[in-house]
Amino acid sequence: MRISRRSRTTRALAVSVAAATALGLSACNRGGADTGSGGGGGNEQVGVALITKDSTNPFFVAMQEGAKADASKNNVKLTVASGKQEGDDQGQITAIEDAIARGDKGILITPMSTGVNAAIKKARDAGLYVIALDTPPDPADVVDITFATDNREAGQLIGKWAAAQMDGQPATIALLDLFADKIVSVDYNRDQGFLEGMGIDVADPKKNGDEAKTGKYTSGKGGTYTIVCNEAANGAEDGGRTAMEKCLARNPGINLVYTLNEPTAVGANAALQAAGKKALIVSIDGGCAGVKSVKDGVIGATAQQYPLKMATEGMAAIAEVARGGAKPTPDAGLDFKNTGVALVTDKPADGIESITSDEGSKICWGN
C-alpha cells in the first residue's frame, strides 16, 4: 500500500518529541511490582519482545536502550533480540518463535523483509499483539499496527531541499539504497520520496530504479537531471563507500548523492574524498553522529526521525492492549502511527521548514 504524503514537519513537532523522550527516560525507574509474565488486567507484568534488524546500527541501539530504560514504567518484562546484520531474516524468525515460546504478550519488530511475514502471522495467530517499528511491512496488515516515521515524507523533505540547493543547475544523481535483493518499504519510500521531492516522476512508487534516467526535475527552479546509479549499500558505512566508488566509476561528475541513512552517507563521503570529488549529500535518520555530520558539512541535510519514541510508545501500547485497554489506531490519512520527522540543515531553503544542527543535536539519538 502506498503511503500517503503529508507535509507536517514543524519546529514544534521536534520540540514535542524531545519533551516526550525526556519524559520517558525520566520515568524509567517507575513501575509496578513484578507479578510474573502475562497480562489481562491491573498492572501485571507484560512480556514484550523487541526485535531489531541488528544490534550495531546506532538507530537500533538507541531503540533498544530507550525501550530498556522505559520498560519499568509500564511494568514490562522486555526481551531484546535482533538479526546478526541487515538481511538476516532467519535471526528475526528465531526471535519471533522464541517470543511465542516464552508466552510474551506482544512483539515490537523492525521487520527485515517480507521473509519474516509468515513468522509474524504465526505470532499473531498465537495471540501476540505485533507492532512494527520504523519499517512498515508489506502488506501493512501483516502486523496489528506500525509506529514509524513517514519515510515518504522524510524522502520528500530532503528531495525538495536538494532541488533548492541545485538552484536550477543540472543534477547528476547517485542513489545509494538499502538492498538489491529484497523489497523493503523503508527502502523504496525513502528513495522514491526523494525523487518526488526533487520533482522527478517515479514509475512504480514501490520500486527503486525504474524511473527515467534522464529528464527534468521540477522542484525549486527546476532543471535537468541524470540518474547515474541505484546501488545497494546495506545501510552500512563500508557499503556506502563501495557503492559510491561504483557510481563514480560510471560517472565522475556526480554532484548530488541520496543516501538511505547516515552511515551510508559517511561511506559515500569517504569515497568522494578519496577520488578528489565533491557532491551534495542528503540523508535520513537524524542520529547524533549524523547531525554532527551536518554541522561539519559532510551531509547537507538529513531528515531526523525518533526511534526512542517508536519503541517506548509501541511498548506502552502493547502493555495497554494486554491489560484489556484500547488498541492504537493509525493517524488520519495513513496506515500507521506517525512518530514525526524534522529536516535538519544549516542551509535553510525558502518554503521548507527545518531546524538547525544545533537544534537537532538537542533531540538526537545515539553517540
Automatic annotation (TrEMBL):
Keyword Nucleotide-binding: no
Subcellular location, principal: other
Keywords for the protein's UniProt record, in alphabetical order: Signal
Superkingdom: Bacteria
InterPro entries cross-referenced by the UniProt entry: Peripla_BP_I (IPR028082), SBP_2_dom (IPR025997)
GO MF, any single term: carbohydrate binding
Gene3D superfamilies assigned to the protein according to its UniProt record, in alphabetical order: 3.40.50.2300
Signal peptide: 1-27
GO terms under cellular component: cell envelope
Residue span, Periplasmic binding protein domain: 48-324
Record's subcellular location: Cell envelope
Pfam hit, one: Peripla_BP_4
Annotated family: Belongs to the bacterial solute-binding protein 2 family.
PANTHER family: D-ALLOSE-BINDING PERIPLASMIC PROTEIN-RELATED (PTHR46847), GALACTOFURANOSE-BINDING PROTEIN YTFQ (PTHR46847:SF3)
Name of the protein described by the UniProt record: Fructose transport system substrate-binding protein
Organism whose genome encodes this protein: Knoellia remsis
Taxon lineage: Bacteria, Bacillati, Actinomycetota, Actinomycetes, Micrococcales
